[in-house]
Amino acid sequence: MSADVRSFFGRPIVIGGGIAGLMTALHLAPEPVLVLSRTLLGADTASTWAQGGLAASMGNDDNPALHLADTIAAGDGLCDRRMAKRILQAAPGAIEGLARLRIPFDRTANGSLRLGLEAAHSRRRIVHAHGDGSGREIMRALIAAVRSTPSIVVVEGVEARRLAVSDNAIRGVWASCSLGSVFFATRRIVLATGGIGGLFLDSTNPSGNCGQGLALAARAGAVLSDLEFIQFHPTALDGSERPMTLISEAVRGEGAALIDETGRPFLECVPGAELAARDVLARAVWNHLANGHRVFLDARQRPGSEFARQFPTIASACRGAGINPARDLIPVRPAQHYHMGGVAVDRSGRTSVNGLWACGEVASTGLHGANRLASNSLTEAVVCARWVAESVARTPARRTKSACGDEYPSPDPIPVRPSLSPALGIVRNGAGLKAAIRALMPIAESKHAAADPAAVGLMIAIAALRREESRGAHYRTDFPHQAPEARRSEITLEAALEAARELAHSPALAGLTS
């Protein structure tokens, strides 16, 4: 980065170069905005890897009320109904806005959108681009639009390390690049950093996505919400590659079936079978694997010979593993896929820290509840980016001074994966969560490169330990039943560290139950 950073002082900064970040920057135009991206735009982002598309009530037999009903049902009692209704009502208009950016959405012979079906949706409402290349095609169009917008400056290869905060208000961000540490002074920052897949041994997300945005917000004192709810996709390609290749739900929507090594379709007792909600299906697959079976996706009949045309990205990954989906069974098992929790935000994306917004997977809007409905996430990012940008634009720009800070290492999640993966998997229990908390606390309080990933994992583990019930994607073997009252959770890093210290000194777990 060769530009004088003083020339950027005061302008809003978007941290993250995925769909949420780029859409926010585009909506801010013509106000000058700075986008900080850890990698080259489009590289190593979950947005680019997204296969499933965007959910919106675009069909003649559909409407936002039906979409809302499916979302609420999947969310298992924890969706913020008002926020979900607002987002889903705006979804069709957001799709039309993307189409104006010349995103090549799949269409029928008569020119109407070709709508796909995914799990727990009562209607075909998934909008795709180039089959399973939706994220790639959307990102291609957004990157072109951003690079052609004079008011947007993109700085690539820069990693945000700490937010500067005074009196609960943003003053800037310390970042690291090839030239060393740099401070960007601003009073308006948008976090759009993606999810937490890099914290897990098995994930379908880029390994570099290890909760950096959550760590930035948490160390700035922000409130985080619903961290315990982590979605595991039931069908990732079972092989040695890491991250794991996602086998999109859309494949099952087109008729592929789950069977075991005997050829038996083992989901007879699961309501909805292949198209059950993700948490239900992931547990069913996990249990069958735990009982000594193997699990396969059988796409030989449906979509059969059409597989490569409908799902070119997945077909290519399967070929790399020596599998022809039109002829061979596809070995699958669950893998971490999406985080329903995040930085708590209001209807405009504002966090509890003045001058800090969050958008996309890093944010917790209340749309997803305890279990995200398939393909609602890209929709949420696209819709909420506009509201975040409008809120940022309404906030007056004020001068702020440069600041000096410590050097912060690039986050390294590798040391925390062995503790987090078993404790915060598909099936959890108190003993495993307590062991993870004890292991993570000293790392989170250290100056080790794993400190930020450990802090994020610690907050998730304590939120999971406090939730003494099973709901949605959070399943406790020691608390297998659902509590009579549904309640969202909130936590701060300070509270998590205090609770962890109490756990370290008190087997009675004082302060860990809410």
Largest sheet: 5 strands, parallel
Query: What number of domains?
Result: 3
What CATH first level of the largest domain would be assigned?
A: Alpha Beta
CATH topology of the largest domain: FAD/NAD(P)-binding domain
DSSP summary: helix tally:
15
Spatial extent as radius of gyration: 22 Å
Q: Structural class, from secondary structure content?
A: alpha/beta
**Beta-strand content bin:** 15-25%
Output the strand order for the largest sheet.
Answer: 6-2-1-10-17
Give the CA-based shape.
Answer: globular
Query: Got a strand count?
Result: 19
Assign the CATH superfamily of the largest domain: FAD/NAD(P)-binding domain
CATH architecture of the largest domain: 3-Layer(bba) Sandwich
Helix content: 25-40%
Mean pLDDT comes to 94
Distance between the termini: 47 Å
Low-pLDDT segments, ≥5 res: none
Q: What would you note in describing this structure?
A:
The protein is 32% helix and 16% strand. The protein is of the alpha/beta class and 514 residues long. It has three domains: 232 residues, 3-Layer(bba) Sandwich (FAD/NAD(P)-binding domain), CATH 3.50.50.60; 103 residues, Alpha-Beta Complex (Flavocytochrome C3, Chain A, domain 1), CATH 3.90.700.10; 106 residues, Up-down Bundle (Methane Monooxygenase Hydroxylase, Chain G, domain 1), CATH 1.20.58.100. The strands form five sheets. A five-stranded parallel sheet has the order 6-2-1-10-17, covered by helices on one side. Strands 18-16-11-19 form a four-stranded mixed sheet. α1 links the parallel β1 and β2. α13 packs antiparallel against α14. The longest helix is centred in the N-terminal third of the chain and has 19 residues. It is globular and about 65 Å long. The N and C termini lie far apart (47 Å).
